[in-house]
């Protein structure tokens, strides 16, 4: 059996590329990439960086530094400032992690401040209750 394109038939009369047989242009190893496998995520073009950097949460870091717990707020500001620098260097995963860390430290700063406010209120209630109960008229 001759093929008009000059190709020799495979075993049992199969043409190359049929029924799992490696065809012309098949990469070494005989495997061809399946459609959809190894493609860029939705909205991203292969070989291009993601469209926008993540939110650096700098505003929350500044607010929690001024209004809440100073040390955790400062750490949040430092992490927020790293986001855009890392993004510009092409370190996208590290930029996302720095943004998440900035948000986490701002949140913990607000939580610590909330706990301190509750503790101060409880302290004053106990002090005032003790003073009222021990006073003699």
What does this structure look like?
- This protein has a domain at 45-134.
- Helix 1 (58-67) runs parallel beside helix 3 (92-134).
- Helices cover 53% and strands 0% of the residues.
- The protein is an all-alpha fold and 137 residues long.
- The chain is rod-shaped and about 115 Å long.
- The model has no long low-confidence stretch (mean pLDDT 78).
- The protein has helices at 58-67, 70-88, 92-134.
- It is found in: Membrane.
- Residues 1-21, 29-46 have a biased composition (Low complexity).
Q: What's the tally of helices?
A: 3
Q: Based on DSSP secondary structure assignment, what is the total number of beta strands?
A: 0
**Percentage of β-strand residues:** under 5%
The main β sheet shows up as: none
Kindly report the average pLDDT value. Answer: 78
Name the poorly predicted regions.
none
- Tell me the span between the first and last alpha carbons: 120 Å
What structural category do the secondary elements indicate? mainly alpha
Radius of gyration based on Cα positions: 32 Å
Overall shape: it is: rod-shaped
Helix content bin: 40-55%
Element string (H = helix, E = strand): HHH
Strand-helix topology:
Layout: H1 58-67, H2 70-88, H3 92-134
Helix pairs in contact: 1-2, 1-3, 2-3
Entry keywords:
137 residues, mainly alpha, rod-shaped
What's the gist of this structure?
The chain is mainly α. Helices cover 53% and strands 0% of the residues.
């Amino acid at each position: 059996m001759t093929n008009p394109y000059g190709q020799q038939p495979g075993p049992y009369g199969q043409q190359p590329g049929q029924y799992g047989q490696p065809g012309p242009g098949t990469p070494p190893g005989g495997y061809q990439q399946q459609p959809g496998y190894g493609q860029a995520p939705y909205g991203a073009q292969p070989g291009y960086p993601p469209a926008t950097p993540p939110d650096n949460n700098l505003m929350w870091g500044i607010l929690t530094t001024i209004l809440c717990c100073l040390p955790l707020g400062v750490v949040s500001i430092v992490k927020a400032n790293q986001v855009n620098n890392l993004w510009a260097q092409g370190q996208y995963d590290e930029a996302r992690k720095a943004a998440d860390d900035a948000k986490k430290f701002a949140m913990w700063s607000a939580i610590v401040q909330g706990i301190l406010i509750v503790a101060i209120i409880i302290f004053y209630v106990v002090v005032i209750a003790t003073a009222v109960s021990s006073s003699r008229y």
